Amino acid sequence: MTEAAPPGIGALWGGNRDFRRLLAAGLISQTGDWAIGTGLAFHVYLLTGSTLSTATMLLASRLPDVVLGPVAGMLADRWDRRRLLVGTDLLLALGLLPLLAVREPDQVWIVYAVALWTGALGTVLAPAQKALLPRLVPESHLVRANALHGQSGQAARLIGALAGGLAVGAGGLAAVVWIDVAGFLLSALLLASLRTSSPAGGERAPARRGPSVLRERGVRLLVAYMVITGLGEGVFATLATPFVADVLGGGGDAYGAFLSVQAVGGIAGGLAVAAWPGDAPPRALLGWGTVVFGLADLALFAYPLAWPVLWPALVLIVVAGVPAAAATAGLTTLAQTATGGDRAGAVFGLLGSAHAATGLLGLSIAGALGDRIGIVPTLCLHAAGLVGAGLMVLRRGR
Question: Which CATH number belongs to the domain containing residue 152 in this structure?
């Protein structure tokens, strides 16, 4: 592990080669995830003309998060995390190649199979990356490191979605495949060069026998938080389109801008947390960050009742991205330290599975409530849920 250095982004970034490489590898692989997800959704619709086919592809890619989260966490704790990440990137690159054979609508099953394969491997990546990070930076730098690492996902969202759409439009699905294969191979090379060991310091770490991580009070709090916010994300994913189209009167370009500009606020928030002087308490970041995030969302969803124009929504969703990034940094740090580094993978696997499962439930709830009480009131309930989740963290944290 790198020796502790004076706090600050400069010390963390400039003095830690392995952290820089993990950050770069995460940015590259997540950009590939966004690019292939965007490219596949667009290509499947062009190939079949069916929204059901596109929905099936998306379901195949997301279902592994629900089913395999705990297994992925167990692998991150049992095996050398660096080697697990390298192997996963190589398998992702290999698994994309069958897409080159897709030419006709009756070959769409290949897309479904690849989406399921990449979804399963993507489930492995997240807990292994987050559980590995504490082995690369001192504990006093964890909040800053998590804030910076979290922004690789925001940057990937901006770059990958745009790159996937442009690539599939210019060169077809094959262009997206080759770009992603190259990206995953580069990510594997960067991860292979990390100077770290398995959790037990050897070739392979034995699983620590003992009670479930749910026996830890801090883990139960984080699971409850993920259940609440997962439901809300499912609601938002379902109702974002009608909110922009029906409530604000926007078109497809407005919808794309609405979804992408939140990443701008997220990047700004992550940099602000990383640059904050002194040590920001992770529980306060999670609690207050979520409360402010919920209040910003409440303003975002409620203002069209009095003034249904588009541009304030773009401003407010950028603003909401700032506290959301702070909350994410706090959440990740708490999960990394809740049980000890040897079981961090299990914690992240459990949290990811809870979030994904309740997100799917939120999709169903949103459809029913949106029709019954309206789009804006349902989205406001989601915002109120965020405020409640943040207050729960602050109250139980005492």
Answer: 1.20.1250.20
- Give buried/exposed letters for 381-395 (b at 16+ CB in 10 A, else e): bbbebbbebbebbee
Q: Are 241 and 169 members of one domain?
A: no
Q: Which residue, chain included where needed, has tokens 């709090």?
A: 221
Residue 21 lies in domain: 16-192
CB atoms within 10 A of CB 194: 21
Residue 314 tokens read as 């773009």
Contact (Cβ atoms closer than 8 angstroms) between residue 307 and residue 247: no
Does residue 179 carry a pLDDT above 80?
yes
| Together in a domain, 76 and 160 | yes
Crossing angle between the packed helical segments 344-372 and 217-242, to the nearest 10 degrees: 40
Q: Quick check: 277 and 165 in contact, CB under 8 A?
A: no
Query: Domain count of the chain?
Result: 2
- Both tokens of residue 86? 């390298």
In the predicted model, is pLDDT for residue 1 greater than 60?
A: no
User: Is residue 282 one of the residues assigned to a domain?
Assistant: yes
Q: Are residues 220 and 367 in the same domain?
A: yes
**Over the chain, what HEC string results?**
CCCCCCCCHHHHHHCCHHHHHHHHHHHHHHHHHHHHHHHHHHHHHHHHCCHHHHHHHHHHHHHHHHHHHHHHHHHHHHECHHHHHHHHHHHHHHHHHHHHHCCCHHHHHHHHHHHHHHHHHHHHHHHHHHHHHHHCCCHHHHHHHHHHHHHHHHHHHHHHHHHHHHHHHHHHHHHHHHHHHHHHHHHHHHHHCCCCCCCCCCCECCCCCCCCHHHCHHHHHHHHHHHHHHHHHHHHHHHHHHHHHHHCCCCHHHHHHHHHCHHHHHHHHHHHHHHCCCCCCHHHHHHHHHHHHHHHHHHHHHHHHCCCCCHHHHHHHHHHHHHHHHHHHHHHHHHHHCCCHHHHHHHHHHHHHHHHHHHHHHHHHHHHHHHHCCHHHHHHHHHHHHHHHHHHHHHHHC
- Alpha carbon 67 to its chain's center: 17
Share of the chain above pLDDT 90, in %: 37
Of the pLDDT bands very low, low, confident and very high (cuts 50, 70, 90), residue 398 is: low
